[in-house]
Fold each of these.
Amino acid sequence: MYYQRLSDDEILSGFREGNATVIREYFYGYCQVGYNIFDQRYQLREKENLDFVSLAHQYALYLMEHDWKPLENHSPNVSLKTWLINGFRYVVLDAMKWYRKEYGSITFEDYLMSFDVTNDLRLQFNKMVEDVCDHAPLDRQERQIIDMLLLQGFKSKEIAAQMGMTPSAISQKYKKLKEQIIVPYFRKNFDMDLDMPEVMDEMAILHRETTRAEACMPAPSIGASESMAFENMDFIREEIMEQKRTTPEFITELQPNEIFVFGSNLKGMHGGGAAYIAYRKFGAIMGQGVGLQGQSYGIPTMQGGVETIRPYVDEFIAFAKEHPTLTFLVTRIGCGIAGFTDEEIAPLFEKAHDAENIVLPPGW
């Protein structure tokens, strides 16, 4: 047991220096606390590859790759322990999203938790909630409950006290509103495809590759696994980017002439799935649902049936052919929350087969 009390700065220095005792007691110790918390909610131990060692090791690889800098960017009012555990939560949620067959889809509450209250995306989410209140069939009381819960952050007990109702009544009303109005409204109007994302963070790719390798050899120590992962990193990147005539399953970076083509919605609310990655990484613009945006291109898939998508696909193909110096990597647009199948969407891209600079998903 490591009995010396260290400051947050001393702990971070220990992480960077590779101090095995500090890493074991503080990094893996903090992650163990987080794992126990999240296991109570998500039953992680019952799911294959969601054990503590796999998730904590995945998180360690990511932080080591970035020289532990993600742990530095926390508020002075937040302890390193709390910040580290919060980051570990995102690793858990990301792993669960890829546990599709057993887990299904992420809950609406976890969707809300994914928004940092300080960033621009949270402001866009607030606008979405306001849009629900403005256009959905709600009475004054229902609008007040949604506003206080989702925008102002009040708890059911506090709302009940202000409205002269019981906390149970507030909870029941919100549950009914969420199931009948809020979630359907989001699914219809915004890209909330969090259970079937078309891209994946690089640290998850590393985890996938190291897991495959570990299955074929005796289990190495933590240090040996980390070394193996970093030695193989360049090979993994090359393997991904070499797949030029079919869109890679995982896209983590783009060459200067490459464009990420994603399924969007007409309102341009890039809140989840490939649209969210396009916004965070590849220059997609909040409020723009169609066309070129930075190193991304949006094709609306949430506004109707297959025939309503076709004009946008034709417009995209024409645009791509007019820009032969750019390479367009088309993801499986429309095959997530929009609810279409590959068999329905792939024929829309038939005219793209003779365009050398349009890269389609396998089978399209």
Note: The first helix runs from residue 8 to 17.
Amino acid sequence: MTSLNITPEDVLRMAQNLRWEVGEDIHEHITEAIYTEAARLADRAVLRPDKEGRFDLDRAIDRLVTSRRWGFPIMLLLLTLVFWITIAGANIPSDMLASLLLDTIHPLLKSWAASLGIPWWLDGLLIDGMYLATAWVVSVMLPPMAIFFPLFTLLEDFGYLPRVAFNLDHIFQKVGAHGKQALTMTMGFGCNAAGVVATRVIDSPRERLIAIITNNFSLCNGRWPTQILIASLFIGGLVPAHLAGLISAAAVMGIAVLGVLLSFAVSWGLSRTILRGEASTFSLELPPYRPPRIWQTIYTSVIDRTLIVLWRAVTYAMPAGAVIWLLANIQIGGDSIAAHIIRLLDPLGLLIGLNGVILLAYIVAIPANEIVIPTILMLTVLITGFNPSGTGAGVMFELDSYNEMLRLFQAGGWTLLTAVNLMLFSLIHNPCSTTIHTIYKETGSKKWTAIATLLPVGMGFLVTFFVAQIWRLLASIL
């Protein structure tokens, strides 16, 4: 037997050369050959009733929802409809919850604490801080989640979401990512941490890292309330009342689509730089359409998604409310700690079309995106002194309607630019602490965890900076 002086490096070099010689579409040809042979064997072994002339509903629907011409418009139309129903249906129950938790229960708790002689600082910490922050999370988050999640789950049960992945598969391959990233991105619309875990279905380590890093651009459940509220107050207010819900839904839809486009762009950039490589083939078998089990879907979506997410938000809102109250009521040099921090952050915030209140709120809300709006509300009261309830500074307050909330933001110096850039920054900023921890567990790498955390927040600052400068330039010209 003769020995060949072939080193492992020679084998790898030969494999690399052969890989490019066989062509980029070799995986598609292999997959097509496998399915063609499987179909041939099935035709020989399986007897099927003659369906010639029969109407096939599944094929008829698929010809529409997966077509090159109508697939994407139908997808956008369905998601816009879901957002419109969520926005139009959430306002009244949200006001009712706010009235109950803030206008009724909060005064009762204050009276009860006064009758027991509880010290003012403990009363403020527990009731004006922890309770009111939690009450605002419940009143702002629960109604839209209770509507959005069942609607989204109905689309999932019907079998439509795999069609979304089918429509997006070709684009993901073009940008150098895996087609299954469409599925993990869809999971991210519920929870980014769940989307990161779902990337386990991607076999290629390179493509899995791309999916993990870009999953943050999917609007998670904690960011939907911020998008819906700001769009309703500022975007919907630009048009007549009968069009406000539709325009607000279109604005939220635009932000969600922008997140998808950013996923494509960042995937393309990563696949051609630090994660260079060839995209793998994704074979997706579309499940048959099934009639949604409406009541079971509503029950499971409320229990498995809405209440679990709400409980997570409450567990983070309570300590966050305590922190905010302490920052607002502990004074240094005659001013609160929160006021000092806000003044320090204001120059940067104004440069990017936001303000110090919003930046501080996002620092406090790193544990959970759900508490961004309650934090902004409380801090804005502290800075502006706008407080319909007449309570002291740093105390969360009662708002009877969206109009009072709009008045509060305007008293804090908010403009349409502030609202637009908040919606953009809510989309493009660092993941929450749960997602960051999940990324580290899945990658086992501090390097990739840092990239997945710092890349989006850096992009958020850049995008809002350029939007603010272009906005102000056009405003000065016009």
Note: Confidence is low (pLDDT under 50) at residues 389-398.
